[in-house]
Amino acid sequence: MIDAMSEMRGSDLGADLLEELREPTERLLNHHLNVAKMWFPFEFIPWGEGHTYSDEEIEAGRNGTVYDSGLPQAAKSALYVNLLTEDNLPYYYNETSIKSPFDHPWGVWTRQWTAEEDRHSTVIRDYLMIRRSIDPWALEKGRMQQESKGEIPRFNSLADALIYTSIQEPATKVSHRNTGKYLDAVGRKIMAIVAGDENLHGNFYQGVASAAFEVDPSTMVEATNRQVQHFQMPGTGIPGFAEHAKIIAAAGIYDYRHFHEIVEPLIGSEGWDIEHIENLTPSAEVAREELLVYVQKLGRVALRRKEKLAAISS
Ligand SMILES: [Fe+2]
Ligand SMILES: [Fe+2]
Q1: Which of 22, 91, 302, 311 is least enclosed by beta carbons within 10 angstroms?
Q2: Which residues are CB-contacts of 98 (< 8 A; sequence separation ≥ 6)?
Q3: Dist. CA 117 → ligand 2 center (Å)
Q4: Ligand at shortest distance from the CA of 198
Q5: How far is the CA of 273 from the centre of ligand 2 (A)?
Q6: Which long-range CB contacts under 8 A does 245-249 form with residues at least 24 apart?
Q7: How far is residue 187's CA from residue 39's CA, in Å, rounded to a whole number?
Q8: Which DSSP string corresponds to 54-119?
Q9: Residue 219: what pLDDT?
Q10: 95-102: long-range contacts, CB 8 A cutoff, minimum separation 24
Q11: Number of the ligand closest to the Cα of 121
Q12: How close is the Cα of 199 to the center of ligand 1, in Å?
């Protein structure tokens, strides 16, 4: 098993690139450790406001009677998807940790990131249980189904993982923050602090990705093209994910506008400035062209969505 893992850490996963990124990864990790604040999930929860489930409620819940908190369906879908996504942490850890030797700064980062992410499911679940915001029986069944499947985005290279996480962390930030708008003051505060963590995670991955563009621009451009064109939020293993994602998008919690708002500056002059990278390989040139066309198209879709939403609200 260990031999197989060592082999997997070979060049196909980007071991050479990772080694070249040792110094910037360490610098970004130290920066993160300086700016990340310690926070305590249990401090946010109004424990005294919770209720014990009655025997009747338990029987009804177990028998599939849907518990309704009265929140809009979009908020319930977002809470369900956001929490179950956070619950899948063991598989994300597995996917990222095999890309690095244990003592490489990337390995240190992966464990720090895991510890921080673990707070997210803790605090969101505790809040939902106290407030009974979503059906707890459906939630637990969903968690069991999702985690026993272990379905997460898998990457063939470190370059792909860096691009995906550079987009996914800010996308998750947006989703948490916008979900908070449906909740009471306690819920909003919780979603805001979780979103703050995701923001710092995004900064780290984007920083390492920037350094990787300096080392191997062609590989990174090709990875960006792949990941942008096929990007999906990480919750695809969640029961009913596609349906929930549609509801979440229709409510404007997370949709193409947000995706475009994240990707455009990342690939543009404020970010990796992909248009002006020189000396790309022929296949990276093709990938760049495809990427720029795709993001332009995405911009038109995002604009139409903005206009539609403006028309509805006026
Ligand atoms: Fe998270
Ligand atoms: Fe995160």
Answers
A1: 311
A2: 5, 8, 9, 13
A3: 6
A4: 2
A5: 24
A6: 245/81, 247/73, 247/74, 247/77, 248/74, 248/77, 248/78, 248/81, 248/175
A7: 16
A8: PHHHHHHHHTTPPP--S--HHHHHHHHHHHHHHHTHHHHHHHHHTTS-TTSHHHHHHHHHHHHHHH
A9: 96
A10: 95/152, 95/153, 95/154, 95/155, 95/161, 96/161, 98/5, 98/8, 98/9, 98/13, 99/9, 99/13, 99/14, 99/15, 99/18, 99/158, 99/161, 100/9, 100/18, 101/9
A11: 1
A12: 10
What is the arithmetic mean of pLDDT over 4-29? 73
* Cα of 234 from ligand 1 centre, angstroms: 11
Contacts of 117 (CB under 8 A, 6+ apart): 86, 89, 92, 197, 201
Q: How far is the CA of 218 from the centre of ligand 1 (A)?
A: 30
CB atoms within 5 A of ion ligand 1 belong to: 86, 117, 120
3-state secondary structure of 164: helix
Please name the residue that has the structure tokens 């995405």.
Answer: 298
Q: How far is the CA of 116 from the centre of ligand 2 (A)?
A: 8
Query: What residues contact residue 263 under an 8 Å CB cut-off, 6+ apart?
Result: 167, 228, 295, 298
What mean pLDDT value characterizes the chain?
Answer: 93
Collapsed DSSP state (helix, strand, coil) of residue 238: coil
- Note the Cα 128 to chain centre separation in Å: 20
Compute the distance from residue 40 Cα to the ligand 2 centre, in Å.
16
pLDDT for residue 4 is more than 60: no
Q: Calculate how far, in angstroms, residue 152's C-alpha sits from the geometric centre of ligand 1.
A: 14
Answer yes or no: are the C-beta atoms of 110 and 97 closer than 8 Å: yes
* pTM as predicted: 0.93
In order, the DSSP letters of 131-163 are HT-S-HHHHHHHHHHHHHHT-----SSHHHHHH
Residue range 306-313: mean pLDDT, rounded? 82
For 265, the token pair is 């500056």
